[in-house]
């Protein structure tokens, strides 16, 4: 039978299993098996050449029993409805795992920002906010950056919402530039969270980060900061990649040089002749493998060839359910996305708190608070997995879904 690559239905399967293990009945699964709201909008944008292009976009809100929904907006040509639904469900789990007072949300626009001018991107970003304005807001649903979106796009979106609202609303969105109410450390937060989780996982496996061989797929926000942090800790980053290919050097790559040469979309390999493919990268001999790009990269087809001792998912959904089973059976420690990549939303929450208070924290305060959240979350999921003898993904789903399930029950929804 063909492997299930549908992110939405495969997520439903694990949610069901987690709820069963927690003792909830079918009604709870019926509530949590898909988002409460899914808005599908079409956004007309005047292009620079005078033509009009109509873009399709989505905003999913999985569950708001705990609090407002929260999650990024992705600009990508392959975004689709099922993907956005799954991503919103993962946000519920992430917020549960790191204990933030949010439910999960996520948005996406089908577009290729690499082919658009800055002016076109600005019109599209503002159009998206107008199109979803009825269901979002600082106490309803708070967007943030994700694949191919950044602080500039957050700034345009915040400005558009503030104009509609008729007052400055920094708490409408997170991941903003610091001068517009962004938090210290949000730009590097996802990678910092991944680094903390890698350190914890390495301790469990008796691996010294100093000298450990690390391979990272993706050289964007998550992947590039992570490469820097790993090499600063003394690890040997022997492979990195982007959408066009991958670089490999068993003696360690010069990360500072690569950071200097990458473009704003995380592309760097096009400058080199000696490249390998992304598939070859994933199968390199290494200690720690970090998929930090896109979904469905480790599947039943290549899971048997993964050589890493630890796989840490910085990306959302890089490993299929079948591959999760294969890796776990092979004794590889797989740290799932909903735990490993929760540093981004954690510092987004800090940003929102600071916006609401109008009082701003130092980079050191942010780092300390993030560290505690990530270490506690890792320990909680790891202990759940080992005491129940289940894989880390199922354990993370159990930890992540419990609070939303309880809040829904107390509200009398189920
Ligand atoms: N930015 C954030 O705060 C967070 C990001 N994530 C996840 O991390 C992953 C990466 O996100 P960002 O670094 O923010 O995105 P980004 O847009 O900054 O970078 C994406 C990177 O992936 C590469 N890439 C794109 N398509 C690829 C393909 N087909 N094969 C190999 N590489 C490919 C790009 O070339 C680029 O290097 C995504 O799954 C995202 O959902 C998760 C939590 C928070
Ligand atoms: O920072 C946020 O609010 C959301 C980040 C996000 O979209 C994710 O963790 O996948």
Any overview of this molecule?
This is Glutamate dehydrogenase. Helix 1 packs across helix 14 (392-410). With 414 residues, the protein is an alpha/beta fold. The chain starts with 6 loop residues before the first helix and ends with a helix. The chain has 14 helices and twelve strands. It is globular, with a radius of gyration of 20 Å. Among the domains are: 35-167, Rossmann fold, CATH 3.40.50.10860; 189-339, NAD(P)-binding Rossmann-like Domain (Rossmann fold, 3-Layer(aba) Sandwich). The site of 2-oxoglutaric acid has 13 residues, from helix 12. The site of 1,4-dihydronicotinamide adenine dinucleotide has 26 residues, from helix 7 and strand 8.
Query: What can be said about the biggest beta sheet?
Result: 6 strands, mixed
Radius of gyration based on Cα positions = 20 Å
Helix content: 40-55%
Query: What is the succession of H and E elements?
Result: HHEEEEHEHEHHEHEEHHEEHEHHHH
- Cofactors and ligands present? 1,4-dihydronicotinamide adenine dinucleotide, 2-oxoglutaric acid
Task: Tell me the β content.
Answer: 5-15%
What structural class do helix, strand and pairing data support? alpha/beta
In the predicted model, the low-confidence regions spanning at least 5 consecutive residues are: none
According to CATH, the homologous superfamily of the domain at 189-339 is NAD(P)-binding Rossmann-like Domain
CATH architecture identity of the domain at 189-339: 3-Layer(aba) Sandwich
Number of strands: 12
Mind telling me the CATH class of the domain at 189-339? Alpha Beta
Number of helices: 14
Shape: globular
How far is it from the N-terminal to the C-terminal residue, by CA? Answer: 35 Å
Assign the CATH topology of the domain at 189-339: Rossmann fold
Active site: 106
Binding site for substrate: 70, 94, 348
Site (Important for catalysis): 146
Pfam families: ELFV_dehydrog (PF00208), ELFV_dehydrog_N (PF02812)
